[in-house]
Amino acid sequence: MDSELVIQTYAPEMDDDWDNLVINQSLNGNLFHTRTFLSYHPSRRFEDNSILIWENKTLVAVVAATKTEKGWLSHGGTSCGGPVIHEQYYGVKDVKKIMDIVNRYYKRELSIKLCEPILSNFGNELILYILNDSHSINTEVSAYKELINIEDFVESFPHKKTRSATRKLIREGFTTEVTSRNNDYHDFYELLTSNLKDKHLKIPTHNVEEILNLKSILGERQKLVLGHDADGRLNSGVWLIAATPETWHTQYIAKNYQYAQNCAVEATLSAAMHIARNEGGKYLNLGICTENNGKVINMGLMRFKESLGCKHHNRYFLTPNN
Known about the structure:
The chain has helices spanning about 15-25, 35-40, 90-105, 125-130, 155, 160-170, 180-200, 210-220, 265-280, 300-305, and strands at about 5-10, 50-55, 60-65, 65-70, 70-75, 85, 110-115, 135-145, 175-180, 220-230, 235-240, 245-255, 285-290, 290, 295, 310-320. By secondary structure, the chain is of the alpha+beta class. The two termini are about 30 Å apart.
C-alpha cells in the first residue's frame, strides 16, 4: 500500500461495491457483514456510521458501525463485526495502516465484534493481534461441528446414551423436513418465543416479520429444518444460515417442551448437519456457550453441544482502552 487511504461514508448506493468486497475479495468477510444481510433492519433501529476505505479506485476495507452511548459498535445488527479487508491487503503492514485510520476516524471509541474463526476463514487473528494494545479483549467460547468425513451424524455423537436415544426416536417415527412454507416459519417462531420467554424471560432478537424478510432476502442461503413426532406434532426446529460457502450457522434452535421426546433436538440437528454438508458445508457453527459477556460458561449448553461432538473456538469482543 503506497498511496494514501481515503474514507468514504457509507450510503445505500454503495451496497454492490460493499458486498462484492465482502463476498468475493475479502479474506475475513461473511454473509453477516454484507449490506444484503444488514438491510433487513428497519432504518430507524440503528444510527449507521459505516465507512468504506479506498486506495485510489480499489476498495480496501469496509467497517459496518452503529452509534452507541459510549461511541460506536461494529455492528449493532450482527454478531459478526469488525473491519472486512481485501485479501490483497491482508498483510501486517497494510492491516496496521487500515486499523490506524479506522481508530482515528472513530476517535478511538469503536468497539468491535470479531466472529469465530470458521466464520471468518480464519482471517481475524492478525486484526486481533494488532488491536491487542489499543483494546481490551473479552473472550466468548463458541462451539462448532466438523461435517466432513462423517457418514452418519448420529453415530458421530460421542455419548452412547445420546446415540441410542436418537436412533430410538427415529425408529419410532420421528421425521424431519426442510420447509419454505411461511406458516411453518410462524409455527417455529411461536415455539422459539415460548422457549425464550419460559426459560430466559427474553424474546427473539428478530420478530417474525424480520425472519420472513430474511427468508426472502437470503433464499437458498437459509434453511428451516423442523422435526415432528409420529403423530405429526412439531417437536423441534433449527434455522440455518450459510455464513460462508463452507460454514453454516444455527441462528435459532427451538424445542417443544410440551410434546418433544428425548433427543428431538439432537435428531433435528443431525438432519441439519446432513443438509449443511449436502450444500457444500464443512462446518456447522452452533454459537456461543457463555453468558455475561463471556465471564460465565453455561455448563448445560456447553455439555449439550459437546454431546453432539462439537469442538470449541472463540469469539472476541474488543473495547477501546480510553
